[in-house]
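Milestone M4 deliverable, item 7.
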Amino acid sequence: EVYRGQTQTGCGGGSAAMGPFYCPEDRKVYIDLSFYDELARTFNSPGDFAQAYVIAHEIGHHVQKLLGISDKVAAMRGRPDYNEYSVRLELQADYYAGMWANHSKQDLKLDNIDIEEAMHAANAIGDDMIQKRAQGYVVPEGFTHGSAQQRVSWFRRGIQTGDLKQCDTFATGVS
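Output delivered:
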């Protein structure tokens, strides 16, 4: 669902402050269009494929819901290592976005400029970049989506392989 400002969702109220999100209760993606303005201006990541990457990431969360992965991570809430698994869930959504790009290259006539737009956006919205911009320093324990390097790396892996079997962001030692 596309909106501006605020909207009601199966997960409660949605607002522009939340950024794009997936609601597992109603199985919908919510995109506040002002986020795209912010992506272009604040994060210096304009372009239609930068926007498509954001949507594909959120659709990745829907795939995780369908596969039962997000429910397994949600069941870990309250554990000391929950945040680590939550970040790995986000990185997996980045991989799925890349995997979609891989399988859509021909149909969408994607070129290197399109891919660079998406990678630039993934880099710009890495937790470390956002924290540094907002508070001037980085607190890795506060990450919710992964570092810029991690987000770009997993998106790139998805584009390069296009293979669902190679997206185990939950494997030990994987970053």
